[in-house]
């Protein structure tokens, strides 16, 4: 049995129409409260035990339990219910549109397509009366687009109850991710000495010194990171994000702050990147003795390296072959997801999800057929992992 196209479109349409912009990114954003209430009622309609856990006011996780027919491990299907903002969308963001095989709307792929696939997969397990030796926990978490307070809360309070996790993010059911990059948000701060414009012997120009740092960072990227991509996780992420500094036209700038996003490959830590930035400071100081710089790490997320997830990978790959006709390979990703937090909590984890595009931009889309395929792949994967022993008569 497979969910119909109408059922898939209907649920996803409803999820997208509920504003759940993360207030971490967009102050005043709606948060996940309303979508969590909708999900709770939806799960309760077919008998799941549902709890809402308020991580912060207006920032709930929804945990829906399908209890097995006999004891066994618990498989967690997890997706995030928040979205980025919709400044790029005019007024179309929350009005999903179906064009052929695509649905277009805010968060339709990232990650409400993943939410819908997990929700529909667990409902199919109920509808088909599949005997399960173990439990399914569907976790719809808050704030992945912010700083992942939802998954942090989930693993802090429930890691002991979860044996395996499939984290759903939209990359397409033709590929399975067993690892991905980590990343850091780092502020690079260069200090100058403020002085009257007529006093160059007193002033130290923080902006000119920062320019030297930026030039060298860019060179490190073009000579080291870009030409040497990780075979599975791609080029190490690096880009500048924000810059601010100086006080006025008439004064030597006292300070510049550059915000960057920078990646780490499995086996690396953010401290490796910080050491490279500090080596750049030393270089600039040789040329500009009055240079003064410091690094402040704002967010540090380790890479994801799946461990102990062999049974999960095998069941998932078998299901992709059964549903899609081709076996999805296991590879890595040049982005970070909550999968890293599950694995860090000791839960064997894989990353998987329906195919989409234009994430965090206007005209974000998801493939409806691939969302339906993902639903069926999840259903089969859980049924395999929690296969109840067959009791024969006599
Ligand atoms: Zn996402």
From TrEMBL:
<dbReference type="InterPro" id="IPR050072">
    <property type="entry name" value="Peptidase_M20A"/>
</dbReference>
<keyword id="KW-0378">Hydrolase</keyword>
<keyword id="KW-0479">Metal-binding</keyword>
<dbReference type="InterPro" id="IPR011650">
    <property type="entry name" value="Peptidase_M20_dimer"/>
</dbReference>
<protein>
    <submittedName>
        <fullName>M20/M25/M40 family metallo-hydrolase</fullName>
    </submittedName>
</protein>
<dbReference type="InterPro" id="IPR002933">
    <property type="entry name" value="Peptidase_M20"/>
</dbReference>
<dbReference type="Pfam" id="PF01546">
    <property type="entry name" value="Peptidase_M20"/>
</dbReference>
<feature type="domain" description="Peptidase M20 dimerisation">
    <location>
        <begin position="179"/>
        <end position="284"/>
    </location>
</feature>
<dbReference type="InterPro" id="IPR036264">
    <property type="entry name" value="Bact_exopeptidase_dim_dom"/>
</dbReference>
<dbReference type="Pfam" id="PF07687">
    <property type="entry name" value="M20_dimer"/>
</dbReference>
